[in-house]
Amino acid sequence: MKLERNIAFLTPLIVLTLLAATLHVLPVSAENSEKPIIVCTTNVLGSLVEEFVGEEADIVVLVRPGLCPADYDMKPSDIYAVTHAKLLFYHAIPGEFWLDSLLEAAGNENLALVKVPGVYNTPEGAKRYVNLAGGNLSRALSTDLDAKMAAMLTEVDSTADEILNEAQTLGVGNVKVVCMKWQKAFVEWVGFEVVATYDPPETLSAADVTSLVEIAQTEKSALIIDNLQISTEFGGGIASEVGAVHVVLTNFPGALPETGNLAQMFRYNAEQLFEGLKTWRSTGMLREETEALKNQLAIFQAGTSVLAIAAIVEAIWLYIGRKRR
Length: 325
Known about the structure:
Elements: H1 2-32, E1 37-40, H2 43-53, E2 58-61, H3 76-84, E3 87-90, H4 99-106, E4 112-115, H5 123-141, H6 146-170, E5 176-180, H7 184-190, E6 193-198, H8 206-218, E7 223-227, H9 234-242, E8 245-249, H10 262-324
Parallel strand pairs: 1-2, 1-3, 3-4, 5-6, 5-7, 7-8
Helix pairs in contact: 2-5, 3-4, 5-6, 6-10
């Protein structure tokens, strides 16, 4: 009993001692760090900061690129990073509803918040993001990033030219598609005609899905386009129902190989659209041939039926004629 009382008495002291040691170690390591900590809510912002400052800062991205920001779970390491960060870049989108709680938990009064709002998955939007991120980093870190900014803007422009040239060659302007609404801006920029969009699948009713199928069938949609961070399967069911091709695009750089920045993400997404269109057109030729064969078969069957009926009628008349004799 005495031993148990001693253990019960010592346990809280041990926990407090370990906690105090931990709290002592973490701030010291942060103070001794020569690199500023820069926190970004998503990898859209993180990839930009990485291109600008590279190894000159410790960059923390809160939401992994394969996730939707609304699915983010706050971690102790994130609170620690924000507590000691110099800058925090965020979008001000509904999916960042958790940001206020994170900032409150961190309690960093010296943290500079940088809002970079608006569409980023078009070249014009991407260039605005580059300018905003680069300008804020230049001021905060007292460094000249003009050359890097110019190179990044040039990459976006050259990628955009490549995509639009390919889109023109393929004649995408008269191609109708259905897509997840967060990809609408990019898909329309490429040149496709978006005839319908849809919200995250878990928010859709049976009537919503039925309406999507009807529109896709009526408009003869070539592609059904999903968003990787929301679903990779939902559009597949509609595509198989209406004879379209299912395509999955990413809304965040870094979620897939060779999509490390916005320009690379644009190139990847455009390639998925173009390959999907080529597949739809090639299968469309097969569908036309199959339909033609079906029509020929129907005509043959109808002709055969007429001949069979005529033969039966003739046989009946012959039989009747013989009876009369």
